């Protein structure tokens, strides 16, 4: 465990992580090295405001998969700030909560996908938000980033870093689809995450049947 008093730079890895995969882990590790970061905090979002909640897996499943995936890296930890906060998850609240926890001296680097950052002007309290941290947008190879976004950051007196991460060719959407189609996800996610997905029937087509007691229960295909 890294002690709080020694921390100077914290990477805040924000995402829905449904599920977390090797693309996320490689991104966090690359950013840690590039920016000399002391600790990367993975922050699974509680209730993403831009998504239909019926299509997002329960937050405790996403949190636990993130814990299993990050277990072996001493520089990675998982935060429950977004999981435990009531209501929709806004990054402004995430960064305010982390500032309260870690103090004003630490430098925060908010890391997420370029697709998400491309919408940042519409996020809650965007102008204040970008002053609370530096932002790192991870792109997939070949991704064309809208140049107006870095310009907008500059106008706000903040900084956006773009980082191409080849491993981000892996995507959560693709993994969910592969599980549903009963294809292998080995080497897409850490083994423990794969076991967790299988054990909890995540992303699988479910059908109901009636048990001996007459109640309707779900069963994986
Ligand atoms: P998303 O819309 O599901 O994802 C957009 C893209 O970014 C996807 O390609 C996704 O790939 C990738 N991505 C997501 N998290 C990533 C990460 N940590 N590192 C690298 N790539 C990542 O976005 P989301 O996951 O729901 O949200 C991302 C972050 O933005 C969260 O922290 C969320 O709270 C924040 N956010 C805030 C607001 C707001 O404050 N109003 C609005 C939207 C998002 P995968 O699908 O493979 O992960």
Account of the protein in words:
The chain has 221 residues and is of the alpha/beta class. The chain has one domain: 3-Layer(aba) Sandwich (Rossmann fold), CATH 3.40.50. 34% of the residues lie in helices and 20% in strands. It contains nine helices and eight strands. The strands form two sheets. Strands 3-2-1-4-5-6 form a six-stranded parallel β-sheet, sandwiched between helices. A two-stranded antiparallel sheet has the order 7-8. Helix 1 links the parallel strand 1 (9-15) and strand 2 (39-44). Bound molecules: NADP nicotinamide-adenine-dinucleotide phosphate. NADP nicotinamide-adenine-dinucleotide phosphate binds next to strand 1, helix 1, strand 4, helix 5 and helix 8.
CATH architecture: 3-Layer(aba) Sandwich
Radius of gyration: 18 Å
The topology string of helices and strands comes to: EHEHEHHEHHEHEHHEE
Q: What's the CATH C level?
A: Alpha Beta
Question: In what order do the strands lie side by side in the largest sheet?
Answer: 3-2-1-4-5-6
């Amino acid at each position: 465990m890294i002690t709080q008093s020694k921390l100077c730079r914290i990477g805040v890895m924000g995402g829905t992580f449904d599920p977390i995969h090797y693309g996320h882990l490689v991104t966090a590790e690359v950013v840690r090295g590039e920016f000399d970061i002391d600790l990367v905090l993975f922050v699974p979002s509680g209730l993403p405001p831009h998504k239909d909640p019926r299509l997002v897996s329960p937050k405790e499943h996403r949190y636990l998969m993130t814990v299993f995936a990050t277990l072996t890296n001493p520089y990675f930890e998982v935060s429950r700030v977004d999981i435990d906060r009531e209501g929709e998850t806004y990054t402004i609240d995430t960064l305010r909560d982390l500032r309260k926890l870690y103090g004003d001296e630490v430098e925060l680097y908010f890391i997420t996908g370029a697709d998400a950052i491309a919408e940042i002007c519409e996020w809650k309290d965007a102008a204040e938000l970008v002053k609370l941290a530096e932002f790192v947008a991870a792109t997939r190879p070949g991704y064309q980033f809208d140049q107006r976004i870095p310009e907008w950051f500059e106008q706000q007196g903040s900084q956006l870093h773009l980082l191409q991460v080849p491993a981000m060719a892996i995507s959560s959407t693709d993994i969910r689809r592969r599980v549903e189609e009963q294809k292998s996800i080995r080497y897409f996610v850490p083994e423990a995450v794969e076991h967790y997905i299988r054990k909890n029937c995540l992303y699988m087509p479910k059908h109901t049947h009636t048990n001996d007691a007459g109640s309707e229960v779900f069963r994986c295909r």
